[in-house]
Each structure stands twice: as structure tokens, then as C-alpha cells.
Design a protein that fits this description.
Layout lengths: L14 E8 L4 H10 L2 H16 L5 E8 L6 E6 L1 H24 L16 H14 L8
Parallel strand pairs: 1-2
Antiparallel strand pairs: 2-3
Helix pairs in contact: 2-3
Length: 142
């Protein structure tokens, strides 16, 4: 049930690399993207698969970030072993949670599904402020 699709598996090295597009390819944006999208988990799973399927131990993990807009700047990030180890722990935890859900047929979710939600106060305030500026009726008057 685990699927990995690395962009490249070089035949002559034990490097695992993956290409990522990003809005801005500066150092901070790349770092944030790694954690926000869990790329360390993705690389850890690919490493596990390479060992299981190919019998190859990955020694380097590389993400190549390419900006989506001109001048399409590229930033290459090598993830340290510690980052991959964190990804492996997170992957293992997710696999264990999934297995427990399968076994018990109990799946996590929000308990209040289907209930009405309230309109946030900030939205009412913003709409009323715009109504005042344009001399439109307030929310309560409609």
C-alpha cells in the first residue's frame, strides 16, 4: 500500500534526487517547503523502497528546487541524514496508525461533521465596513 516514485535513481551512485517546483527558490522558501510538504518523509520512504526492492543503501538525498517563474532560478538542497531519520520516524508512525485503523476499522476524523458553521466575526466586520464605505445595507438589514 506504500507507493514511491522518485524522479531519478542514478545507476552509478547511491543518491536519491527529486525535482520540485516552487514559487520562490530562495533558501528560506526551500526550507519551509521541505517541512510543509513533508519531503523528508517522501525521501525516507523512497530510501526504504530502494533498500527493499534494489538492495541499495541511499547515502545522499537531494532536492532540486526550480522557481516557477522567470528567471527560473534553481536551488539544490542536500538533506542531512538527521532529516531523513526524522522522515523515517514520521513515516513509520503513519504506517503504524494506518495499520491500527485497518485492524480496528476505526478512522480518525472530526466529530462534528455535518454541523453548521458560524460566520466569523471578522468577516461580518469586513463586510459591514465595506457596506459603510459604499453606503450599502448592513448584513442585519438584508
Amino acid at each position: 500500500w506504500i507507493k514511491v516514485r522518485p524522479d531519478a535513481i542514478p545507476a552509478d551512485s547511491n543518491m536519491l534526487s527529486d525535482l520540485k517546483t516552487i514559487t520562490e527558490s530562495d533558501r528560506i522558501s526551500c526550507s519551509r517547503s521541505i517541512t510543509d510538504f513533508g519531503y523528508m518523509i517522501q525521501l525516507a520512504l523512497a530510501e526504504m523502497a530502494m533498500m527493499e526492492v534494489l538492495g541499495r543503501q541511499v547515502t545522499e538525498h537531494v532536492l532540486v528546487f526550480v522557481a516557477k517563474t522567470p528567471p527560473y532560478l534553481v536551488n539544490v538542497k542536500v538533506l542531512p541524514r538527521e532529516y531523513i531519520d526524522i522522515g523515517r520516524r514520521l513515516a513509520r508512525r503513519s504506517i503504524d496508525i494506518f495499520a491500527a485503523c485497518l485492524e480496528s476499522n476505526t478512522w480518525p476524523g472530526w466529530p462534528d461533521d455535518g454541523e453548521y458553521t458560524e460566520i466569523p466575526g471578522w468577516l461580518k466586520f469586513r463586510i459591514d465596513a465595506e457596506s459603510d464605505a459604499k453606503q450599502l445595507p448592513k448584513l442585519e438589514e438584508t
